[in-house]
Input
Amino acid sequence: MIATCLAACLAAAPFAGQAEVHAASALLTTEFQIANLTYADHTGTHKLQAPPFLYEQSVMIPLRALSQAMGAKVTWNHKTGTAVIEGQTSGKLTFKPGNNNVYQGSKLVTKLPAPVVMASNTLFVPAKGLAQLLGGQVAWDAANHIVRITHQSSEMDKLTFRYHFDVSAEGWKGGFSDLPVDYNPDIYDLAYKRELIPLQDNTTNYGMKLSGHNRSDDLFMYMTKKVAGLKPNTAYQAKLRIGIYTNYENESFGIGGSPGASVYVKAGILDKEPAPVELKQGNDLYYRMNIDKGEQSEGGAEAAVVGNPIKAEGSKAGYQLVYFDYSHTAMTNDKGELFLLVGTDSGFEGLTTLYYDDITLTLTS
Output
C-alpha cells in the first residue's frame, strides 16, 4: 500500500533513534558506544573520526563531540598544544594531551582519572570527568558497552534538531500521493531510499532520494518525520531549513512544464502525521493527502510553497545543493508531538529525482 510504501532505511548504530529531546524537563542525553564510530545526541546520530575505548578503567570519548553535545565551545591553542572548553557554567577549562590535570586559568580544577589521549588526530578524555565538569551525569551500560551522559539544557526555550542521513534515515518516512490507487508501478518509477548523493568523488555524503515519474499530471512526493518529547499543547515558533540536491535548471523545458520551475517545494509542521488516504474521484480511487497542502503552485492551510528545485549555477553540470526556509507557529498535540513535512508538488510530467540532505529544525517556546 502506498501509505506505507518505501521505508527503505539502512541500519543505524545500536542506539540510534534514542536521542529524542525531552523538552518538558529539558534533560538531554548523549550516548557513546565502545568501538562504535557513531554517537547519538538530541540532534540525531553523528559520525566520529575515531571510536571510544577503555583506558585505565575509564571510558575514553572524543572531547569535542561530548563538549559540543553539552553546549560547550571548543578551541585548540596551537601555541600551547592545549584544548580549551568554555561551558555555560564551567568557565574556560584547559586540557593537555598526556596530562590528567584540568586548569581554569592557572588554577588546578581537578585531576582526571586517566590522562588526555591524542589518537587518530582526536583528543579523548574520560567520559565521567568531562561530563561532571560540564554539569552532566554519567551512567554505564555494561551489557552493551554504552556510556550515557545526561545534562540540563542551557537553553530550555530553544531546541535544535539536525538531520544529515549519513548514518541512517533518522526516522524519516517517505510517500507519494495524487496518483491512482491502481497505479502501474512500472511506469511511475517511484523510489524513496537512502543513497549516496551523485556528486563527483563522493563516498561519504548520503541523502534521502525521492524519485517519481509524474504520470497523473500532479504527483506529490514527500518525507515526514515525527518529533516527540515536546511540551504537550504548546505553541512553538518553528524554523525549518531544507537542503535539497537538484540537477534542474531554471530555463529548461519538459512535458507539461519545466523540470525545475514547474516543480514546487512544499513544507509544513503539523500536529498529526501526514499520510495518503484513498478518495473516490468520479469512478476512480486516488491517493490524496489527509492534510491541506494545496495543489501544485498553490500552498494550502497546512503546507506552504517555499520555492522551486532550481540549481543556482544552471550552466554547471551535476547536482547542486539548494536551501529552502519555512517558518511557522506550530502547536503540539496532547502527546507533545510535531510532524515535519517536506516534499514536491509537480506540474512537470516527467521523471523528477531529488536528494534531501541537511535538514534543520529550530523550535522556540
The two ends are 37 Å apart (CA to CA). Confidence is low (pLDDT under 50) at residues 1-25. Helices lie at 63-69, 127-133, 185-188.
